[in-house]
Amino acid sequence: MERIDKILAAQGRYSRREIKKLVRDGQIAVNGVVITDSSVKIDEFKDTVTLSGEPIALKKHIYIMLNKPQGIVSASESGSERTVIDLVPEPLYRKGLFPAGRLDKDTTGFVLITDDGDFAHRILSPKNHIYKTYLARLEHRIGEAEIKMLENGITLADGTVLKEAKTEIAEDTDTPLVRIMICEGKYHQVKRMFAAAGNRVISLHRQAMGGLMLDASLMLGECREITADELRQLENEK
Ligand code: URA
Description:
The protein is of the alpha+beta class. The chain contains six helices and 17 strands.
């Protein structure tokens, strides 16, 4: 059991002072009963808290799956440009949200948005081998030799080393669709890998992070919260 003002303040959405005021104004209810004291203790796993009638997630951290459309920047702030954080709907929004790993502005698909820095670090660190799966539409056919090259890793002319990628052809056409899995996230990594193999990426989509697939029912621009089971899947199923 923990004080309600402490739990809510830890989420970063409201300060302790703002929470006191909301309580004074009768805006907060615990299990359907309006509270008048912001020091009331609650059980964050069992109790239901509402703000102006809307349920509030009490968890310490939040993990959100977004199906990113083209034209949106993977950053928390970007001047006048729309960012992935602008697509998080109000009930899931908190201060301190950021994308755990970036997709290029023209890349679509799975972006994980969270306020948990340790988690983000863990899933992005190449040493933890959490593979990110992409579908790349290519300008030209790709041969065995090029696939081998990507699978062995590539050293670019400027000395940058791009680690080995698991690569397979998903659709064998004149502009093939290739599934490529990488566990590091260097700038334009997938595009640079295919360029080094003499090809060009026409469009790029992130399909999965670790063992967690992007939810096929999410339309471009839509988000949903990731469950605890799915988080385990992401980190443990490689
Ligand atoms: N590699 C790229 O080139 N772009 C992305 O958006 C992600 C991986």
